[in-house]
Design goal:
The complex is a heterodimer of chains A (297) and B (387). Chain A has 297 residues and is an alpha/beta fold. In chain A, 40% of the residues lie in helices and 20% in strands. Chain B is built from 15 helices and 13 strands. In chain B, helix 3 packs across helix 5 and helix 5 packs parallel to helix 7. The chains are: A alpha/beta (297), B alpha/beta (387).
């Protein structure tokens, strides 16, 4: 299966970039002509365009309560970053599942179906049950009319979208987590399950568990990994880094190894987001894709 | 004295002309020759434009022709304002996004984060039209089953929390509908201004909530004596409750170089209304007090267009021509300006105007009507009062 490569934008990273409130005021010698109209969102848009220009398949936007909201950021950059799948991460506590579905419908209609949902895990004990119900209701109002639901967290009567809203496709759903409960939830409700980085043996085992649970649920669930990446011209320059690290060739090789272990979706991150998107996009992605072509041949 | 004029983004498609009811802008009608966003290429395929591209044109037109922003309505079969606003944030510079939404849609702390983020994305151009009324089957469609007066109680609590977490200090709240402990916006987000809040709803429950939280009280246009009384009552009641309300009117205009041309378009539009459209608008169930006031006009039962002329330059059949309120203003540019001046004299502090087609009419009304305001005979008492 084809590898999908996503860049991950963290709204809280590089906090000074484009941030008007953090511009130096006193003691700054150069004449500063930046207007109030230039904002942090210009930086987000640059990162998104960088990911598009350098060949990523999509852009994840991390959920950071202390910074800009991922759904606002994803929509704000969508029209200037063509082709990318935009995947905001958000918890299932944001509000009504019907309303979330409706916001998604508009996003899909406006962007030729380029939205994905990454439901961020929450800390409360009800999180898994609520996420399952959130997705059940959101898919329900997309796919059925009338849709009725009476559950623990959500209630709908006579719901469901009409033409033309009902023509939008439901966003691919990414869920996360390493334990059996998370994998079971993904088997029932995710399109892609994202693992944190771990040893190759551990990942193999978890991918097998996921496949077994998905098979039992009668669904297809792809496996992915959320991982930091350090790619440099030589292995020596990347020593001591965690995640996927090494020379461009080495990093491409590690991705190929993970792919062979059943991982097809790679959500990559590095800081600073803009420069590293260019670097990875320019030097690593072509190697990964060339390797795939060789394997296929 | 200055008055805020907003335009409106039609979120349920638009018509190329007020004379015909076909939604030929957007995909609420079939993809065919003559439709736009999406339209057809020369070889007959979907041209790839989407309705958001048309909304972007309208927002830019409103911005360039002197409107401060636009209302973005929210109904079950419309595109969504929380999605539209950030999508268009970076393509506009001064256009304020007036987001219509119901407190039941979002968690209040999350809504505060979303709002602060949108303020940052737009340079403080977020405005809210908080909707609490409605009810009946449409409320259950959204998954919301509160009874009428409870919904205003919830709106009050929602806005208590919305403002509370904006203070930057850990905020506790123990309400009937919401409980919050130690929540706050981060310093980065709390630095933004709380969006201006526009409120609707005529019942006393609504006014109690408005007195506490609203900046503007928004009403559809009603017959002038009625709306004068209403504004006076709103201002008096909210003052008793310790609030201060400005009042605003949402109204459609058909403004033409001459009055005859304006009524000709109304007449043509009326004669093109199909029985299916009449049936669609007849007796829609709702428990909203505002909607009931409009329904009393009974435009669906009119046999002739001029049965619906309810006053000088006032026509009560707009809901037959496009979704929305029934009563609107029809006349020459000068007459339309005079009506708006008259409404200002009667207590209006702001307006949400609209006209079909929304793109072209934004320019027309921005260029031909708005510059006349404050210069008509109706404005004389205002000018004298200001001296």
């Amino acid at each position: 299966m084809t590898i999908k490569l996503y860049w991950r934008l963290d709204p809280a990273a590089e906090p000074q970039r484009g941030e008007p409130s953090l511009r130096p005021t006193a003691g700054f010698l150069p004449r500063d002509v930046r207007t109030a109209g230039l904002t942090r969102y210009d930086y987000y848009a640059q990162v998104a365009r960088a990911a598009a220009i350098t060949g990523f398949d999509g852009l994840f936007v991390a959920y950071r309560p202390e910074s800009d909201d991922s759904q606002i950021v994803a929509a704000a950059v969508a029209r200037s970053a063509p082709r990318l799948l935009l995947v905001p991460e958000f918890p299932s506590t944001v509000g009504s599942a019907v309303y979330a579905a409706k916001e998604a419908v508009s996003f899909q209609r406006a962007t030729h179906n380029r939205l994905g949902w990454a439901i961020a895990p929450g800390a409360d004990p009800d999180d898994s049950a609520r996420t399952a119900e959130f997705l059940h209701v959101a898919r329900g109002v997309y796919g059925q009319k009338p849709f009725d639901h009476q559950g623990r967290f959500f209630e709908v009567k006579g719901g469901g979208f009409s033409e033309p809203l009902s023509r939008a496709t439901f966003p691919p759903v990414f869920l996360q987590g390493a334990d059996e409960e998370a994998l079971q939830l993904s088997a029932n409700a995710a399109d892609i399950h994202l693992f944190d980085n771990a040893s190759l043996d551990d990942l193999r085992g978890r991918v097998e568990t996921l496949e077994r649970l998905a098979l039992a649920a009668g669904r297809d669930v792809a496996a992915g990994v959320l991982v930091t990446i350090t790619a440099r011209e030589t292995d020596a320059e990347a020593t001591g880094r965690t995640g996927i690290a090494g020379s461009y060739d080495s990093v491409a090789g590690q991705i190929a190894t993970l792919h062979a272990a059943g991982i097809t979706h790679f959500v990559l991150s590095a800081s600073p987001s803009l420069e590293e998107a260019y670097r990875i996009g320019q030097f690593v992605l072509p190697r990964v894709r060339a390797g795939q072509l060789r394997t296929a041949a | 004295m200055s008055i805020d004029f907003y335009w409106r983004l039609p979120t349920h498609g638009c018509h190329a002309t007020i004379r015909r009811g076909s939604y030929d802008r957007g995909d609420w009608s079939p993809l065919q020759a003559g439709n736009q966003t999406p339209g057809l290429t020369a070889s007959g395929e979907d041209d790839g434009y989407r309705y958001i591209d048309h909304l972007a044109e309208i927002a830019k037109a409103a911005e360039l022709s002197g409107f401060i922003g636009g209302l973005i309505p929210s109904f079950p079969n419309t595109d969504d304002p929380w999605t539209i606003s950030p999508l268009l944030a970076r393509e506009t510079e001064t256009f304020r996004f007036m987001i219509a939404f119901q407190p039941g849609f979002l968690d209040p702390v999350h809504a505060a984060r979303l709002s602060a983020s949108l303020q940052r994305a737009t340079g403080g151009r977020t405005v809210f039209n908080i909707i609490t009324g409605g009810g009946g089957p449409s409320q259950l469609w959204w998954g919301d089953s509160f009874a009428h007066d409870d919904r205003y109680g919830r709106t009050t609590e929602f806005l208590d929390i919305f403002r509370g977490v904006w203070g930057g200090q850990p905020f506790d709240y123990d309400g009937r509908f919401y409980q919050v402990k130690g929540d706050k916006l981060s310093p980065l987000l709390a630095r933004e201004d709380v969006p201006e809040i526009w409120f609707s709803g005529s019942s006393d429950a609504a006014l109690q909530s408005a007195a506490k939280h609203a900046d503007y009280y928004l009403s559809w246009l009603e017959p002038y004596e009625q709306i004068t009384d209403k504004f006076a009552r709103v201002k008096e009641r909210t003052a008793q409750l310790g609030g201060e309300q400005k009042c605003a009117i949402r109204v459609d205009l058909v403004a033409r170089p001459t009055e005859e041309e304006a009524w000709h378009d109304i007449r043509t539009g009326f004669e093109n209304v199909s029985d299916a459209t009449r049936a669609q608008w007849r007796g829609q169930p709702t428990d909203s007090v505002g909607a009931s006031r409009q329904a009393a006009l009974r435009p669906t039962e009119a046999k002739r267009w001029d049965e619906l002329v309810v006053g000088k330059n006032l026509w009560g059949g707009f809901n037959l021509l496009r979704g929305g309120p029934a009563l609107g203003i029809v006349g020459s540019y000068e007459q339309c300006a005079e009506q708006l001046d008259e409404l200002i004299r009667r207590g209006a502090d702001a307006f949400i105007l609209a006209g079909t087609p929304h793109l072209e009419e934004a320019y027309r009304i921005g260029e031909e009507v708005l510059p006349l305001l404050g210069r008509t005979a109706a404005a004389q008492p205002l000018l004298e009062a200001a001296e």
